[in-house]
Amino acid sequence: MNTCLKKIGWLLIPGLALLFMADPAWSQRGLRGARGGQESRQERLYVSNEPNDHPRTNYERAMQQKAETDRQFEEACAGIIDYKKIEYRSRIGDLDIPAYVFQPLEKRGPKGHAAMVWVHGGVHSNMGFSYFRFIAEAVERGYVIICPEYRGSTGYGEEFHREIDYGGYEVDDCITAYDYLKENLPHIDPERIGIMGWSHGGFITCHALFRENQTEFKCGAAIVPVTNLIFRLSYKGPSYQRSFSTQKRLQGLPFENREEYVKRSPVYHVDNLQVPILCHVATNDQDVNFVECEAMINALRAKKPYLSETKVYVDPPFGHSFSRRGDSRELKDSWERTWTFFEWNLQPNLDKSAPAVEEPREEISPLERIHQRTVFADMHAHPDQFHRANVERISREELDRYRRGLIDVVVCNVSSDAAYQGGYTKRDGTRIRRLGAGEDYTLQPGEAFDFTVDRLERVFKTIEEDEDVVLASDPRTVMRAKRRGQIALIPALEGADGLEGKISNLHQLHRQGLRLLQFVHFRANELGYIQTRPYQAGGLTDFGQEVVRECNRLGIIIDLAHAHKETTLDAVRVSEDPIIFSHTGVKKLYEGDRYLSDDEIKAIASKGGIIGIWPSSSFKNMKEMVRHIDYVKDLVGIDHVGIGSDLRGMSYVPEFGEEARFRAIAEALLDSGYSADDVGKIMGGNFFRLWQQISRN
């Protein structure tokens, strides 16, 4: 009998354990009693899936705090910002969503303003007054800002708080803010609305942009975004998990509701992105830890390199909130990049509405209208032939020619191989004759580098002396210059001979302002081989590979013009960033040394690169040049075509006229049936987009 009781006892123990687990309140009380009031490991690990067990808050206090925030907004906006608190019905149809709307006091006409939806962070939080300084700047820049207090936000009572639906209906609540703007504010252009969020708000922003057939937003910015709930819940532990597992539409952990958690994790949906996104993260983020953010950065760079602008900030002050707290260098840099990103994509200064007072307006051409919203760039030029002529600086007359040609960015090339091959004039007036193919002057160490520095000084002197010219140190500088009517000059080398095989020379030139490096010109050098006589087949050298990697790290644009096919294909393979071939043509249309095969064109485009068509002497008329552009566009797409003039800017084709007008090619493209958007891409939009991508680090 005793033996039977013992057997029954052992059988009952697992059942009692199940009872404890089935009733968490009972089990936890019992365990606490067993441990003398100490919380056991079992209690710490226990995660309920019952909505009634969802973590609670002090709802009355939260509502009081929200009322104080509203008062602060109203007081701060008085006299400078049109502020109001509104409500709209969520697309889901079950809740009214409170939202803040901030607008300029003076409104433009219909479709006159760009707008943004700003999404606050926090599993349970709200739009706090700390955002105001950024909101005020956005309004000053011409934006209308709407800040939705999506379901689960605090300060609106228990029922609204408990409706939290992380990564689900809350995304619809925020997208509905777009509907409100479109339907209620006619001065907002529905085609110029973006979305931006921080942390959990960045998570919602990603979801809004990664949905299939997303048509609302033109672009978006996700700062330190949550990216992967499956990883995040395992990384944060039970105390964090309880805020998710008890939500009505989740009711469990990832292993219990795997498909729903995958659906709610943006990192798995990057493939759906169809519009530009900016993403900034921090290596010392202790909330959305970098190990989580890094996966999103890598996914964007690998899958959507043409649409994503990403940057990793190394240990910035305040970590997770580096872009919202303090006044650090990193905060300023992040916001400057963010403003430039939105200016480029939303054009807040563009007023599409009719003028309030009808006054005579100077008519502008279709091309000038394209230029208003696009950066025009000459990817390869030698203004005033400063690279060989003995000029102190680029003349105002030459710059005026570029201005009349509507060029915003000029890549100013020093042919640094001239130190070895001659064909230039020294500062004292001595003319150094040009040697024949395969011949080189014997130089002392440092001479080629000194020659390169001397020639670049002509560009820097131009910038110092002319207030209408700026150094194009990065894409943001170019955007600011364009708004002010200035021309931006990019210092560049045509042939990296001036490096003399030393990576330290590249570092010094970069510090001085070098932002584009063409590896070879008319002679093979320490980096690689050339495509013209004297023929010498060969790929990228070991030093060339080192230079590629260092250019990627420094954000220097790599140009493979004049490079042998093997050198070009090697560089494409080694480079993590897209490259350009700044001035060339199509070998299938003209069998010449300086032209590219289909294989090379496809390889360059496969990494997001650009083929610059150049008005060579082989072109008899403008139609020939357009034909080469057509060919590249048909072979690899419109996003991989640009223009590199060479010499003083379209100096070969007679149809460009005495002015050698850069704009002539754009006019020819319009006449050939190219759309305004496509013309903008070819004339510089593609190059600028590539540079933005390269500058992300």
Keywords:
697 residues, alpha/beta, eight-stranded mixed β-sheet
Q: What is the makeup of the main sheet?
A: 8 strands, mixed
Looking at the structure, what is the overall shape?
A: elongated
Instruction: Write down the Rg.
Output: 30 Å
Quickly count the helices: 25
User: Major sheet: order of its strands?
Assistant: 1-2-4-3-5-6-7-8
Fraction of residues in β-strands? 5-15%
Low-pLDDT parts are 1-36
Strands, count: 19
Mean pLDDT: 88
Query: Which secondary-structure class do the elements indicate?
Result: alpha/beta
Percentage of residues in helical conformation: 40-55%
Please give the alpha-carbon distance between the first and last residues.
78 Å
Describe this structure in words.
This protein has 697 residues and is of the alpha/beta class. The protein contains 25 helices and 19 strands. It has an eight-stranded mixed β-sheet, sandwiched between helices. It is elongated and about 85 Å long. The N and C termini lie far apart (78 Å). The model is unreliable at 1-36 (pLDDT under 50).
Spell out the blueprint of helices and strands.
Elements: H1 2-22, H2 24-34, H3 41-45, H4 59-77, E1 82-89, E2 96-103, E3 113-119, H5 132-140, E4 144-148, H6 158-161, H7 169-184, E5 188-198, H8 200-210, E6 220-223, H9 229-236, H10 238-245, H11 258-263, E7 277-282, H12 290-303, E8 308-313, H13 329-346, H14 366-372, E9 377-381, H15 396-404, E10 409-414, H16 418-421, E11 424-425, E12 431-432, H17 447-465, E13 469-471, H18 475-484, E14 487-494, H19 503-512, E15 516-518, H20 542-554, E16 557-559, H21 565-574, E17 580-584, H22 598-606, E18 610-613, H23 622-636, E19 641-643, H24 663-671, H25 676-694
Parallel strand pairs: 3-4, 3-5, 5-6, 6-7, 7-8, 9-10, 10-14, 13-14, 14-15, 15-16, 17-18, 18-19
Antiparallel strand pairs: 1-2, 2-4, 11-12
Helix pairs in contact: 1-2, 7-8, 14-25
